[in-house]
Structures are given as structure tokens and as C-alpha cells.
Amino acid sequence: MPKSEKKKEAPMPMTGAGLIRFFEDETYGIKIKPIFIVGTSVTLIVVVIMAHLLTGL
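Now predict its structure.
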């Protein structure tokens, strides 16, 4: 498209501007990797199942 035709088009709305700023913000607090959360959850599940089997309930 020639440049003169591009100028006639309306500009695209900036719908994603808020999301970009959200991810640029620095968050404070504890930062835990997702693999640690998954591993801890699986370990807790295994411990509960083993305790259930060993107590015979």
C-alpha cells in the first residue's frame, strides 16, 4: 500500500497497553519458582497417602 493510503486508515486502538504496564511493574515479596510448588504438593500428597496406608484407616 502506498503511504498516502495508509494515512487515511484509522489508528489501531491500544487495548493491550494496560497489560504491558502490568508486567513491567516490579512486585515485592517472596518469589517462588512454580516447580517448587508442584514438587511440594506432590510430596505432601504422597506423605498423606503413605500415612493413610500405614495407619490402616
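Residues 34-55 form the longest helix (22 residues).
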